Amino acid sequence: MGDMLVELADLSLVWMWAEFYENELSMLQAGQKIAVTAKSYPGQNFDGAISLINPFLDETKRTAKVRIDIPNADFKLRPGMYVNAELAMDMGEALTVPVSAIMPTGERNVVFIDKGEGKLEPRIVQLGAKYGDIYEVQSGLQEGERVVSSANFLIDAESKVQGALKDFEDKNETAKRREGETGREQ
Q: Given a cut of 70, is residue 164 above it in pLDDT?
């Protein structure tokens, strides 16, 4: 007496929680459509819609949870399944570069322009928003310019080696100059 024997759940509508970064929240609104996929059903999309945007941020991850309702008439989706949500938005047109093309130097962001014949030109760029694995470029680059998008660590390493060699040569020159001045004084 009093024990729960059975719990019934209506799975014709299931929901999931997705996390969005705080800079993405301004692009979301209730009712917005989202494509949901599950590894259990490759190649099949489930249509979901945002039903709730949590007004509180996770202060550590800088994300907010968003509830997505998914009609589940054929009962393929089940509680506890892992799914992926993909939100497609038209963000307009902009000049973009791959994240791998950007070399952050602390205060500035640098890209290397391929000038041909093995010559590279460093260029400081002003970046806009990041969308997945690309950055919007607000200034410093023109459409059609070719940027180095891989092996930037080699360029960075080479520039550090060249800088270290120049410092070493400058110190040696200074030491030789001082040595020569000391010899003349005697």
A: no
